[in-house]
Amino acid sequence: MTSGYDVIVIGGGHNGLVCACYLAKAGKKVCVLERRHVLGGCATTEELWPGYKVSTAAYVISLFLPEIIRDLQLKSNGLEVLPRSPSSFTPLPDGRSLLMGPDAELCRREISKFSTRDAEQYPKYEALLERVAAVLEPTLSQAAPDPLPLPASWRKIGLVKKLRDARKGWKMYRTLASLGEDMPQA
Q1: Number of helices (H) and strands (E), helices first, in the chain?
Q2: Which tens digit of pLDDT belongs to each residue from 148-177?
Q3: Which DSSP state fits 3?
Q4: Strands 52-55 and 45-49, how do they pair?
Q5: In sequence order, which residues have a C-beta less than 8 Å from that of residue 84 and are 6 or more positions away?
Q6: How far, in Å, CA of 8 to CA of 12, rounded?
């Protein structure tokens, strides 16, 4: 029995949908299977209460690559990104809350309700995040590096040495694990 599909994508979340679209653009016949009544996964906006639509999981759009928007012609197919300001609201059990968004003065004022020192340092933190993002962003649309073939020096290592090193590693893990309960479990 043949399915009539070249590819079946399990999960109609945003990543599954993007994958399915690229495969279809490449000429593949694609079937997307999703268990929920709505597609989009973490990028879904749903009406949870009558008259109120909210993003049920995603709170940032920074990882939504412009290449995807362009390649899949999402704007001409109805994509509209609505900026939010403030962009996040965090209620706390003690009744306080934190509003954050693109307005630097709002962020400073809100953070200072908890710590004036943190509010003063926040611009430096934002600048650090921007530098990190500038380094990482170009890698988001690249394929992960292939770890094989291993370097020639690694291939020359014999099985006995690999086993001996693994045994030493296990002994080290057991020693570290004996130092406290906060160690990761094997």
Answers
A1: 6, 6
A2: 666 666 656 666 566 666 777 677 667 666
A3: -
A4: antiparallel
A5: 101
A6: 11
